[in-house]
TrEMBL record:
Protein source organism: Streptococcus sanguinis (strain SK36)
Residues that hold substrate according to the record: 137, 311
Catalysed conversion reaction: L-alanine = D-alanine
One protein family per Pfam: Ala_racemase_C
UniProt name for this protein: Alanine racemase
UniProt GO MF annotations: alanine racemase activity; pyridoxal phosphate binding
Amino acid sequence: MMKASLHRPSKAVIDLAAIAFNIRQLSAHLPQKTEKWAVVKANAYGHGAIEVSKHIDPLVDGFCVSNIDEALELRSAGIGKKILVLGVSDLAALPLARKGKVSLTVASLEWLDLALTAEEDLTGLNFHIKIDSGMGRIGFRDSQEAQEAIHRLQAAGAVAEGIFTHFATADEVDHYKFEAQLARFHQILSELDSVPPLVHASNSATSLWHSETVLNAVRLGDIIYGLNPSGTVLELPYEFKPALSLVSELVHVKEVEAGADVGYGATYTSKSQEWIGTIPLGYADGWTRDMQGFDVLIDGQRCPIVGRVSMDQITVRLPQAYPLGTPVVLIGNSGAETITVTDVAEKLGTINYEVVCLISDRVPRVYKD
């Protein structure tokens, strides 16, 4: 974990009110009795798990995380609502989950065998059964093994609290694969002689574009942060507000002559006299080297990143001289111009999820409501 650089002007500004607004938007379009679980894994997609969870706690029924350590972080911060670990847990998580009242995922009989060997009495532990309906990562692929897992959990004193699956293509235009997965999940549920009380298949994408997948709980991730899970493939059906802005300041401004090289590898050479500004943010902050050629916003204008992105700094071509301390927007709004997380993702050839998760611990998160 890198030390947060609190005395540097580069910051991620998190609008907690926007996240709450986004959850209310979703809630208005979901059945009233559907449980809403906020996905706050990976430090709430880079937005800050503790601060986000505390703020939205009154609006949700539970939280989803990646592993037991993320769950215990929330418990230590005073979050008392239900928490589900979505991934396969280390056996060391069993006593920690019992103590923290955290629900774990069971994805195979092999794992369950190991769990029962390590801790024969699972009394007081809640589990969710993961079904692999076609994603191909973790989960039971047939009803017989899933049912056996439920019976064995109950025999060991545990509670089979839920059962769930995850879709591979819910954010795409073509529905064929998605519909096959949904049908497979329903088939497996129909073949069970006892179905756990909480049944969930919907993530952000399915909650938005596939209302038929909304069972009695939904897992809401990317969309609560105001990010379109499809990127630009599918249009959002109603308004959401981006929660994260990435800002900094100019710390150095100079005029260079024509033919001057800028940055490692001398990959940029000025064509004429130019103003070059330096910004204290680089690939160690998550602004990767392939951002060269992209823009930042200064004084409502797009300024191209020239020269290679280095570990701690980037250089940009300015339209004029600006004083030190002039605000720089890397994600967000400046005047009439906007750079979105999805814009950055398209430059990188990736998805908006990855962009926000890459913003490192060195960048302080500043919260506003």
